[in-house]
Amino acid sequence: MPTFKCRQCPQREFNSRTALYQHYRTTAGHPFCNECNKLFLTQASLEDHYRGKASTVHPNCPRCGKGFFNTPADLPRHYTDSIQHPTCLVCTIGFKDDAAYSAHGAAEHPECRCTLCTRQFLSKDELKAHLNTSDLHPKCTQCKFGFMDDGALDEVSEQLNLSENNVDSSHSIS
């Protein structure tokens, strides 16, 4: 009867390949892929195996290339944990890329999003502070309030012109 030897534990012999696989799975220090039941001689070869498969079995991160994800569900956790991926400041979900983050912010938190800069803020107050301090946003020359864009500034200007009897005529907008 053939014997199967563990290459990392040369003193261990097994009567079947199944018994050897069980040894690899249950004994620390034995490189073994749980997803495809492959044995590896070294940890480095297992890591190469994970990095080399661009599939749903061992997905790699499309942005940073990091591997070692045994299931597709591991990727969202990686997006949240990795500093290389954008994370929503409001709900702390991580995203694959800037486009996914931007789409999330626009759909889920539009009240806290600067559409000109595409920046996401924790609150409406933080967004207002950004509008008031950013040089990219037009401001009222009188009250110094910032506006999202020229259209918003023009809208306020029109409203002030319509009600100029109630507003100090020195209140100009530029």
UniProtKB/TrEMBL annotation:
Residues 31-58 form the C2H2-type domain. It is found in: Nucleus. It comes from the Eukaryota. InterPro entries: Znf_C2H2_sf (IPR036236), Znf_C2H2_type (IPR013087). SUPFAM superfamilies: beta-beta-alpha zinc fingers. Keywords: Metal-binding, Nucleus, Repeat, Zinc, Zinc-finger. One of its GO terms (cellular component) is nucleus. GO terms for molecular function: DNA-binding transcription activator activity, RNA polymerase II-specific; RNA polymerase II cis-regulatory region sequence-specific DNA binding; zinc ion binding. This is C2H2-type domain-containing protein.
